[in-house]
Amino acid sequence: MAKVVRFHETGGPEVLRVEETPVGDPGPGEVRIRHAAVGCNFADTYFRSGYYPAQLPAGIGVEGAGTVEAVGEGVTGFAPGDRVAYNGSPLGAYSEARVMPAAPLFKLPDAIAFEDAAASTMRGLSATYWLAKTNPRMQAGDTILLHAAAGGVGLLAVQLAKLMGLRVIGTVSSEAKAEKARSLGCDEIIFYRREDVAARVKELTDGEGVTTVFDSVGKDTFEGSLKSLKRRGVLVGCGTASGPFPPIDAFQLMMQGSVHFTRPAFADYYADPAERAELSALWFGHLAAGRVKVEIGQRYALEDCVAAHRALEAGQTIGSSIFML
């Protein structure tokens, strides 16, 4: 038996329940993992609320790190005792142990602690493909705008961007978050609740705008993000914390300076084995070598799942949130 977090109906954080369930043995193509730590991500709230579909009753969570206990028929590349991390479906990471497909697993270097892996596998791999793939024209010396720069993904993206030689303008909501973002390399800060983001971006770029905007907020920031771009810039819609992006007006994109909008999905950048290997080697290499620091701002027990989701949705977290097992 193992503790798991499940929801039987969609809604607010209160629908989450901690239950006991049998774990079982892995079938063909599957492994059984004993978790050491599990990631708590904003995307989890989308499944819980019903914004992303899930077959009910459902487990929750897509990111974890731990040790392989058993492997099923046909599994190659993994064996009992291996240290692993993962990001991907099916739901169910909020658990002490689980059986899941082997396909999403990554071998975890010994130099990376389980809690750092749980706090950064999804976030780090996401920030890696955003920066490496979504705007191929971006190069060292360019300036980018990064929304939610003090969030779990944001703090990792700041560090990766600086390793790439980029100038980073980050948006935050408080002085505490500004201090944290600056400490990890953010060059300029905009307080989005009291400043006109696009106007400040133009001031900070001598009226030119930025090469790329990474917008994980969505509805509330879309217009400002678009106006912050330089000619032929790219707006990367990488999250919808405030709600979905509005319908895209092609004429508006032209009038803004022949800019581009893309709404990338993690799965599409990690589907090709060669690209998956390239991006994961890049991320885990930086992490293992200590070139990137993982900021874990909140640690919870599974029993604290309701409070964890409330804090996440209220914007009260700094850095990554994880469940410790």
Automatic annotation (TrEMBL):
Ranges where the Enoyl reductase (ER) domain occurs: 11-323
Gene Ontology cellular-component annotations: cytosol
Entry keywords, A to Z: NADP, Oxidoreductase
SMART domains, alphabetized: PKS_ER (SM00829)
SUPFAM superfamilies: GroES-like (SSF50129), NAD(P)-binding Rossmann-fold domains (SSF51735)
GO MF annotation, one: NADPH binding
Name of the protein this chain belongs to: Quinone oxidoreductase
